[in-house]
Design a protein that fits this description.
By secondary structure, the protein is an alpha+beta fold. Helix content is about 30%, strand content about 15%. It folds into 2 domains: about 45 residues, no CATH class; about 60 residues, no CATH class.
Amino acid sequence: MIQYALKCADGHSFNSWFQSAAAYEKLSVAGHVSCAICGNAQVDKAIMAPRVTAGRDASAEPVEPGALSKPTNPAEQALADLRKKVEANSDYVGMNFVSEARAMHDGETPGRSIYGEAKPEEARKLVEEGIPVAPLPFMPNRKTN
């Protein structure tokens, strides 16, 4: 992928991504590149600075595998710990959260700790009905079969 700074004949500047330089040329010649602001199809590449990253310093410590997914501060660590506790002590019910919570509240099914997903308006209805629910400060990992 390549990002180009573009400018239309009316003077509007904008950026756009293309699969390659050849893809940009092909789309441009065919008239499929147009201004994101006014729709003008007379678009040319604008002057732009290349994105250059510094080479990796040989003396730098190697990046540990999985380092980007590890908590980097106490708040992230607390969220990671909470996620582990919720996942270890609750049943994930996915998009069935609303019906499961309502069934337990109504005594139709035995009570247990559950977590899942609900649309905001559905969660609001549960609260209005007096069903105790709370939002999680993280998105559940989607479990699949």
